Amino acid sequence: MILINLLPHREAAKLRRKRDFNVAMFAAILAGVALAFLGYLWLQSQLADQAQRNQFLKTENTKLDETIKDVAGLEAEIQALIERQKAVEDLQADRNLPVQMINELVAYAPEGLYLRSLKQEGMAITMSGMAQSNERVSELLRRLNTESKTLVKPQLIEIVADKINISKTEQRPAFKFTVRALIQRPASEKADDPKGAASAGVKNG
């Protein structure tokens, strides 16, 4: 009977399997390191791209902020020009207001009533005078309220019984009054009568 010693073959196979396992482990480690390195490179690339996009957005936002500031500055300049233009127009309109107010007061003051003083405070005017009766003062208020274009919302501040001198020896009963009204700039003819202006335009056409 022939006896064969298999121990060396088993040891060799065991060593071979161990070597193959070590090679596989080393290859797996190398593959893992390679994948990790590739992942790191990809992540760095993504971060760089994102940083570039962020910088682009920051630059564009800065440009947009500058544009907004420029627009705001232009709006402020336009508003200032509008206010200056309005101030000039108001001054031009105010030049004629005193004449218009005096003309209206002369036209609307009823007979038996006269004014002694006029005092303007801003866009309000206070007038004081004498009247033969309460009805004359009421008539002045009514006319100003319904017909005046420059004096609106008249209010009776005070009315008291008094006397006026007709001559050195004669006096008559009268009423001393104070009236306050607001000053209103009269609208232009077009604003007062747009239908008439339109009709005139149609006729002229």
TrEMBL record:
Sequence segments annotated as region (Disordered): 186-205
TM stretches of this protein: 21-43
Residues in coiled coil: 57-91
GO terms for biological process, alphabetical: type IV pilus assembly; type IV pilus-dependent motility
Highest taxon above the source species: Bacteria
InterPro entries (UniProt xref): Extracell_DNA_Util/SecSys_Comp, PilN
Keywords: Coiled coil, Membrane, Transmembrane, Transmembrane helix
Protein name in the entry: Fimbrial protein
